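Subject: DUF3237 family protein structure
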Amino acid sequence: MEKLIMKIQVFGEGTPSDLQSPYGCVTFVPFTAKVESELFTGETLPGAVDVQVETPDHVRNMCAKYMFQGKDFQGNDCKLYVENNGYLQPMNRQDPHFNAVPRFLTDSPALGAYLCRQRFRSEVQGMDWGVEIRIFDVLA
């Protein structure tokens, strides 16, 4: 059984940078984000970026890397690094969301033992205001 543990709201910020070639393309999308959950509440530090690489056959890899500054569920100040990786196949481009795999690192002793394990998946979905990322514990 899965359990929703966190929702992250992502907002575009700045101008994307891209490179187009016959061998594929890459786009860097800067963003800001915030999260409010029972586990952690915070906002991104500068430097958050979503890197999208597309092959000539239109398979797209998305890798977002960002760090939050905030508070863990015990009220302690901490940082939470998130790396979210996913693939979008050409046949699935019309889907309103796609699945990815998040990885976490944190300096919070209260969060570290739980979040720094490989037991999560994410759903990334476009919204009117930006992107929502839902994090699920697949072993709950």
